[in-house]
Amino acid sequence: MRLHTTAPSGATLVQNTFIDHYMLQANGEYVKVYLYLLRCAGGNMELTLSSVADALEYTEKDLRRALAYWEKVNLLQMNCAPDGTIQDITFGDPACSGSAPSSVPAASAKQTEARQPLAPNRERMDALRENADIRQLFFVAEQYLQRPLSSSEQEDLLYYYDSLHFSADLIEYLLEYCISKGSASRHYMRKVALAWAEAGITTVSQAREETNLYNKNYFSIMNAFGIKGRNPAAPELKTMSYWINELGYSLDIILEACHRTIRQTHQPNFQYANKILEQWKKQGVRTAADIIALDKKRQAEQKDRPQRQQPPQTRAGSSNRFNNFNQREYDYGQLERQLLNS
């Protein structure tokens, strides 16, 4: 993916027009994407979608959503290959784009709300804090987190209640769900809340139906490892959530990594599977076809590589009954190569 800008190198030029007319009305995470790419364009850097997502700690889906927004307001133009891969991004001039944010096609009410910064106005927040339901919600949240809420966390809960129109029960379930997945971070909880809002989820029953899909994914992964008859442990849940939500991999890719782990180690090993998936992420794997292509490339490279002659090994030492055992010798370099070849 190549970036193109007319700004001089050595500095990241942000025009006042962008700040006055675009930045103030955009989602803060979209602004972060725009500024990061603008800086990379000034440095004449070669990027991939996955490398940008890793740098910003976003999913590729989040990144594509941000790029689509900036393209919609004519601040950048994307050139994509037939398979959807982004090849070029060209930045437009905010002062000459001829399109203000108000000209963006109308979105649904939920999507519009989800794009807004997480900050009800101060007077509204002060009034909401006097609401009995809100006070009870704060109390329940502190019980879940086992500590007092920070002011930022209170603002997040008020945003879910007042702007996303989540009921207190739904927000309680949001807390319960995120903590059960091993993450109580604001960033993770906000991503889940915005995803629910965009999906039109307004009740606890709808949220349970949505989260059951994730639970089915977790148990499919456990079954692939041959683990049955028990629920996933907290570290296992955290790892599987990382594969799905952070690496952004679909179930078929994750299951393939699990199958390769079993073939190599002959036992369930989440750390081994995690290294496979992270390696695939670095290599730009997005689909099963990418894995097949990667395997073929590796096989061709191995076929062209000359076989190295291993010198015969001599074993010195006494011939007592302990040394007469054929002791196991692990070639850790070979094990590492097997991991990378998985």
Q: How would you describe this structure to a colleague?
A:
This protein has 342 residues and is mainly α. The protein has 3 domains: 2-105, Orthogonal Bundle (Arc Repressor Mutant, subunit A); 122-202, Arc Repressor Mutant, subunit A; 223-300, Arc Repressor Mutant, subunit A. It is 57% helix and 4% strand. The protein has 16 helices and 3 strands. A 3-stranded mixed β-sheet has the order 1-3-2. Strand 2 (76-80) and strand 3 (86-91) form a beta hairpin. The radius of gyration is 26 Å and the shape is flat. The two termini are 27 Å apart. The model is unreliable at 98-118 and 321-330 (pLDDT under 50).
Task: Summarize the entry for a quick read.
The chain is mainly alpha-helical and 342 residues long. Helices cover 57% and strands 4% of the residues.
Q: In terms of topology, how is this protein built?
A:
Elements (H helix, E strand, L loop, with lengths): L1 E3 L11 H6 L6 H15 L6 H8 L3 H13 L3 E5 L5 E6 L17 H7 L6 H7 L3 H14 L5 H12 L5 H13 L5 H13 L5 H21 L9 H13 L4 H15 L4 H13 L5 H17 L27 H9 L2
Parallel strand pairs: 1-3
Antiparallel strand pairs: 2-3
Helix pairs in contact: 2-4, 3-4, 7-9, 11-13, 13-14
Say how many strands there are.
Answer: 3
Q: N-to-C SSE series? A: EHHHHEEHHHHHHHHHHHH
Q: CATH top level of the largest domain?
A: Mainly Alpha
Number of helices, where a helix is a run of at least 4 consecutive DSSP H or I residues: 16
The largest β sheet comes out as: 3 strands, mixed
Shape: flat
Question: Helices and strands: which structural class?
Answer: mainly alpha
Q: Give start-end ranges of low-pLDDT stretches.
A: 98-118, 321-330
Instruction: Summarize model confidence as the mean pLDDT.
Output: 77
Domains, number: 3
Strand order of the largest sheet: 1-3-2
CATH topology of the largest domain: Arc Repressor Mutant, subunit A
Question: Rg from C-alpha positions?
Answer: 26 Å
Helical content class = 55-70%
Per DSSP, what share of the residues sits in E-state strands of 2 or more residues?
under 5%
Termini separation comes to: 27 Å
CATH architectural name of the largest domain: Orthogonal Bundle
